[in-house]
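Continuing the batch. This is chain 6 of the set; chains 1 through 5 are on the previous pages. Same settings as before, nothing changed between runs. Recording input and output for traceability.
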Amino acid sequence: MRRNTLIIASALVVLAGCASAAVVSAEPGGTGPAPVPASAPALTVETVASGLVHGWDVGFLPDGKVLVTQRTGEIALLSSARPGATITRLKAATHTVQVRGEGGLMGLVVHPDFATTREFTTCQTHQENGQPVDIRLVTWRLTEDELVATRVKELLTGLPLSSGGRHSGCRTTIGPDGSLLVGTGDTAQPTAAQDKNNLGGKVLRIDLKTGKPLPDNPFPGSPVYNYGHRNVQGVAVRNNGQVLTAEHGPDNNDEVNLSIPGANYGWDPSRGGTSTRYDESVPMTDRTRFPDAVPAKWESGATTEAICAAAFVNGPKWGTLDGALVITALKGAKLIFLTLNDKADVTSVTIPPEFTNKYGRLRAARTGPDGSLYVTTSNGTDDKLLRITPA
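Output for chain 6:
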């Protein structure tokens, strides 16, 4: 049933119209149908700012301002996280960003000590003389006048990059222990996901200050935390310390996974190294070839929604959605809320009708300091940062 949950939920949204969110039960761990919770709250959606272009990620500053990376290579500073915010386009040396296909200026984290260091880190595709080189993490410092982002250092280099930017990843999130977690794409290379010496198709775990692998990583001396992924573009930390990731499927089965150190998630378009082409007919989680591969906690089923970012919403104001994982959908142009049990099994799926045929492709999702959910659109013109709260 879990594989078909999203299809059923989408049909119920059509029936429900704009009156209430569709809520569908799911099978937690294959143990049978779970009870459907009470109706989820209606949502209020406000536009914080317009005029962005492919807003990719969002970071909140201690003084209430907001940073937004745009895939085009621009960094926007918003005057607040409230409707009517003005936009300052920071001066930054992003001329080395390869803006092509799915690549560009992507993930963003504001350092926890920003109040004293004024530092933040981005994940971006890198070119030299017009030729793709790699994907790298770059640390920046915002000047006191808030007009310029100066490059501090390259935190980590060597993530693979395809010439066309396909499957570039690249979501960055502060882990529960203060480490930097990075979801990467396999760059459409057949062997990348299963090759632990290749940083594509992985979740990485590094020191935010030095870029070095953490000493307790599962593979000594390596930033690889787990592997066997296709294209991870969502990484979210739950209140209990669990880390959930979201990734794109080929033409079926987008996945949400529970991140486990050292685990294999079973994507292998090389078919065990026997195919030199990128064979996307293989399962997202191939448990025939890899019996120990970790099964997904949620799958989109027979189609894909092109899920992207992931974030948790918390607090009593969210009602039955308190503690839910929300994922954005690009192709599906919707928000999907997943209610989880203690083992991170999905017990219900909620699709708010407030986004039906209204905002288009949705990319970033971050929970703000005020407990609201902030989401960017990614339509290519006049994109927006949206603030979402229970009505």
